[in-house]
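User: Show me a protein chain along with its predicted structure.
Assistant: Here is one chain, sequence first, then structure tokens.
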Amino acid sequence: MSTLPVYRWRLAPDGLATRRQLRAIGLRPGGQDVVAQIERPRRRRGPLVAYLYRIDRARPVRPMTARRAAALAKANAARRRCPTCRRDAGYVIPTSLGMCVPCADTPRHAAA
């Protein structure tokens, strides 16, 4: 098993990019394997690691279709709907609460 080449922060060679960098230029990894990684040192913790992909093997981002957009909108709406009061909270319901903040603050739910 071979190990990946490791580059220091901002010293990766041309032709390699992270997922975010690929997305910014309208590309995606497209099933290719990671070819290298970059590490950004931190003072009291382990380094931040980002994986690099070859730009020449990247594929274009798939276009958003009407059906995909509808499915995404439906999923996001479900994340905003409170299961207790059945209202759209206007924000994503925190998984730690399991309900909208006003419902979580009521006395009958606070004891549960």
